[in-house]
Design brief:
hydrolase; alpha/beta; Rossmann fold; 11 helices; 6 strands; 2-HAD; about 50% helix; DNA polymerase, domain 1; single chain; globular
């Protein structure tokens, strides 16, 4: 059983963990694709998004996340034979300001804030996260973005930058995330304890946990459960 008393800081992935990014993505891409006579189901859209995003983030040089999202839309056009308009190319990045937290996120963060330092480690630009920070309604002790790290998770670089800024022993930091690929494997490889927030069954299919290095210390279905466990006597 995880002993929450040993931790002083919780680090969080943001999109998919705190913010409902799947509905945000689908709210943009589904009508965009339909406008170009392309009818895909939700799972197909999300899988293609993940494929295109990972390819772009693994590039030989860093590009801002706004540009990543622009190129993701372009790749949908290339895959399905249409040319996105300028507004469509910017539509994903422009929509982030409207992406909302999961229903349990805000209250859970407020509860956790009473006991822990809260830190963000997110694959995003500073200005884009600023929109999300307003929705999350808590003050984070540190915010580490891909723009600051000049790299994208699962790069070790993003986590090392966070660890340096938090300035606590590794055994006092607990990383909380929905993505095994982007977060859990890398965090564990650096010696951090991890919590996998497995919000949806589809995530279980997409985040196959095989090797020991990818096994989280704790799995929870949502942040409400994590907050309750951390407060239990």
């Amino acid at each position: 059983m995880t002993d929450f008393n040993q931790y002083k800081a919780l680090t969080f992935d943001c999109y998919g963990t705190l913010i409902d990014w799947e509905n945000g993505i689908l709210g943009v891409l589904k009508p965009l694709l339909l406008a170009h006579n392309t009818n895909l189901d939700d799972a197909q859209i999300l899988e293609l998004f993940a494929e295109f995003e990972a390819e772009l983030e693994k590039g030989d040089y860093y590009i801002k996340y706004r540009e990543v999202l622009k190129r993701v839309v372009q790749k949908f056009g290339e895959r399905f034979g249409f040319e996105p308009t300028a507004d469509e190319l910017n539509s994903l990045a422009d929509s982030i300001q409207h992406w909302l937290p999961f229903p349990d996120t805000i209250e859970a963060l407020k509860t956790l804030k009473q006991k822990f330092k809260l830190v963000i480690i997110s694959n995003v630009d500073d200005d884009l996260f600023a929109f999300s920070a307003k929705h999350l309604q808590v003050e984070f002790d540190q915010i580490i973005t891909a723009e600051q790290a000049k790299s994208y998770k699962p790069s070790l670089n993003n986590f090392r930058l966070a660890i340096e800024r938090i300035d606590l022993p590794l055994d006092q930091i607990l990383h909380v995330a929905a993505s095994v690929y982007h977060d859990i494997v890398t965090a564990k490889s650096l010696g951090l304890s991890t919590v996998w927030v497995n919000r949806r069954a589809v995530q279980k299919r997409l985040n196959t946990i095989g090797s020991a290095i990818s096994q989280p210390n704790l799995e929870v279905p949502d942040l409400k459960t994590l907050a309750a466990l951390s407060s239990a006597k």
